Give the backbone structure.
Amino acid sequence: MASIAASRIAALNRLRCNIFQTSYNPESIRTGAKYLRARLKGPSLINYYPQEINMSTFIKGFPDEGLVDLDEEQRLQDIIDKKKRGKGTPRKARTPQESRRNKKRR
Amino acid sequence: MSPNIRVLRDIKARHGVNANEIARRAYLYVARNQSLPASVRYQAQLQLNTFGRYTRPSTVKNRCSESGKGRGIMSEFALSRFQFRLKARAGEIPGVKKASW
């Protein structure tokens, strides 16, 4: 059987790609097309967790209704009361010298 | 049950990925395209590196929506295997019941 020249096979492949509308890429160069072809995952990703309805998100949804989150109000009031009794959270350190973490290490 | 910090972080990642997906894909296309000049591909790769941590799809992890556990998750129900068992036995998952024959 007579051997076929490589150039003839290449020409055949080029013609074949032309007919079937596929891209002719004899050196298998990476075109990055797979990143464009791939399905977008974002829309399905954000729907993974079921949406939780609680009072704070409900109030955010209707800001004009004048709804009050009683639990949140109570929490804020408790913080104010604690601060009055000197039981509030400590002040944030302004300088590295103030930091309590450093004192422990020494 | 209120979500724990790991679940909140995962939700943040999911929204970040969703918001930046198209731009990231465009840069990925340029950076991985061998037919483009090397300098252009390099610039695209540098741009990709400027995206934040929570814009990469690999930072998203399926966690249990009930307990926040990260392992042993049945993705179809978004539940860990134990929470799945509890809910299935309580009849809270439609179409799931304990096998018996």
